[in-house]
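Record 1 of the preview.
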Amino acid sequence: MSALTVNIFKNSQFQLFLLSALTLFLFKVFFGNSDSTALIVILDLLIALTIFFLLLSIYKYFYKKDFTPLSFIMNVGIMNAFIFFIISFADIIMSVLFDNVNERLNDPGLVYNFVSVLYILLIISFLAYVILVLRQLRFFGQSRNLKVYFNTMLVFILLASASAHFSDSNEFSFISDTFFILSVLLILFNSVKISWIAFLVKKEKVYLLILSIVMAVLFFVNFSSNTGTNIHSQMLGTFSPALRQFASIIMLYV
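->
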């Protein structure tokens, strides 16, 4: 085991991440897919804490390295391809593990809860890394402090995610739509006037163009999978509609 891996496991934030992940698993085992508003709120808070502790645990290791935009974009591209592979074969994998996946979605057992939590943690890890990369790219080469704009965008993304529970309500669906539109507008605002591309040499810009085309296709497919009716979308939606909305918005941002 490398020294970096040992340091990560000794990291108090990573230990909190593991604790929150374990709590998330136990919550799903004991309460399953409850319709109780209080339990839904608690579940979403546990998911938010899990993401938050993961971000904190990898933040300082993430920024210890000298930042090179192209290398981080390539890493996101590799992770995106891996997630695409997982999503594409989720139907087959779940069908092999379980006889009737659709029944498991509504009546999960211990094994399904364990597998679903592992799957969710995989998606969460991908989203956390993407958020950190996007944050670094947003601030790279900027002389002004733009944290307030980026943090405001994240707040509205969280609000849009939390309001996903109202999307099926005829009376309150406008809340979800409003926060989603505001999130998209803030994403567009944070996407303009980025300066890191100017620091690339011509050869790197060509690589970036090729990577951007490939990543755009992959992220579009992954975004469609999040909002579709496949096993991946059903697992996310059944686990937490807020998490599915959060994943969709982050993939839309990229």
